[in-house]
Amino acid sequence: MRPVKHMRYVAVSAAALLALTACGGNNNESSGDSGSGEALSGQVVVDGSSTVEPLTAAAGELFKEEQSGVDVAVGTSGTGGGFKKFCAGETDISDASRPIKDEEKALCEKNGVKFSELQVANDALTVVVNKDNDWVDCLTVAQLKKIWEPGSKVKSWNQVDPKFPNEPLPLYGAGSDSGTFDYFTAEINGEEGASRTDYNPTEDDNVTVQGVSGAKGALGYFGFSYFEENEDKLKALKVDGGKGCVEPSVATAQDGTYTPLARPLFIYPSDKGLQKKQVLGFVEFYLEKNQEIVEAAKFVPLTDAQKATAKTELDKLKAQ
What we know:
There is one protein chain. By secondary structure, the chain is an alpha/beta fold. The strands form three sheets. A five-stranded mixed β-sheet has the order 2-1-3-13-4. It contains 13 helices and 13 strands.
């Protein structure tokens, strides 16, 4: 069994903990001294992107091996839903698969929530089809747009390309609160949030796995780690962003050749959250042990330059 699958079971329990603490917001007590080697205790409340969830859950499990008194509760209400809670002061950290929007920044500012944007991994947003799909290995951005653009009437594969069979094309993708939805629609359809609506939207990527693996002609999209976890059930398509077909991978996400669907992944800690020793300890651990965490959760690692930038941003927030 791959490590990331175990992380998802941890996250389910963590989500239950989050529900219990939602009313209490950020009022969890802690003990110990972050960075001193002394024991910490208390809860770290996280919500947001379902794409980043397994990464943060992996970080939480590894952190608990060193700090058994700390519970990291990870919810998955989507990037947009996570920012709503975060800017209302209900969480310590927000997971995000896109940068925070101006209106979300304004909400945080209105509520006195200061934060830092810390990149914690890279991702290759992956287009997947059924394992039995033997007629396509690569789609161009234009073909993906034809499928997904607002008002699209494409319902079978031969409408995408006459060479493809007359096979029904059921679609699965991220819900509108998801950062994955925002990113995919912006890069493929040219406008964030612009998408056909007659598809199967979900904040749970496992629904997409089940849907695409259950229908020969189905197509969906989600983060690279979800494909890696389910590559026995799904086939990843290459994407032609104008310079030929490129497959999603660690290397192509880091070097930028997997265009336009390579993207950064973030966590956003709040200033008030970092005042709690267990939260500060967890965030510092997240960055210090990033390579180990990313490998455990099967994500694309940061480059050295990205690691340095994240550390600098955290230091700025700690100084406020």
